[in-house]
Amino acid sequence: MVQATAFLLVLFLALGAHGLSVKKCSLTGRWVNDLGSNMTIRTVNANGDFSGSYHTAVTATSNEIKLSPLQGSLQKGPNQKGQPTFGFTVNWSFSDAITVFTGQCFVDDDGKEVLKTMWLLRSHMENIKNDWKATRTGTNVFTRLQSQE
Ligand code: BTN
Question: What is the Cα 109 distance to its own chain's centre?
């Protein structure tokens, strides 16, 4: 009986320690993607809502690139296990387009946080006949920008 209790105690402590040591992926902070675009995500609130800013490295337009706002939502369900899914919208300040991103915040095998995303970029068309060419799609991978302390 004493042995069984001791065994369960050790098992409980081991599982607890493992649970504490598993790194979680957090969206808050500064990120850079494979195109060289930069993004800052401010605090995620209790509902999972967040805002931030996006500086794209590229544009489908000939306009001068400007810092643009983003609004997003993090999935807060019980099965996210520290690697949550999320979505956000960038409302471009310098063009008539909108981009929606959807993705998941992972911790990779080296313990590094990475955002794997897919996006839809909707450009504005003057005529419904051009709707067929209005939407581009692609993927972006974001890694955390280390602060320069
Ligand atoms: C536009 O060209 O009208 C607005 C800028 C779009 C930039 C796109 S959004 C998807 C892709 N990922 C980036 O970081 N930039 C491009």
Answer: 18
**Token pair of 106, please?**
């992972």
- What is this structure's pTM? 0.89
Q: Write the residue with the smallest CA distance to atom 7 of ligand 1.
A: 59
Kindly state the percentage of the chain with pLDDT values over 70.
85
> What structural domains and CATH numbers belong to the chain?
21-144 (2.40.128.30)
Spell out the residues 6+ positions from residue 137 whose beta carbon is closer than 8 angstroms to its own: 118, 119, 120, 121
For 37-72, write each residue's pLDDT tens digit: 999 999 999 999 999 999 999 999 999 999 999 999
- Ligand 1 first shell, C-beta below 6 A: 33, 35, 37, 56, 58-61, 92, 95, 97, 99, 119, 121, 123, 140
Q: What are phi and psi of 83, to 5 degrees?
A: -130, 70
User: Ligand 1 centroid vs 95 CA: distance in angstroms?
Assistant: 10
Residues 67, 63: Cα–Cα separation, whole Å? 12
Half-sphere exposure for 4 (CA within 13 Å, toward CB): 1
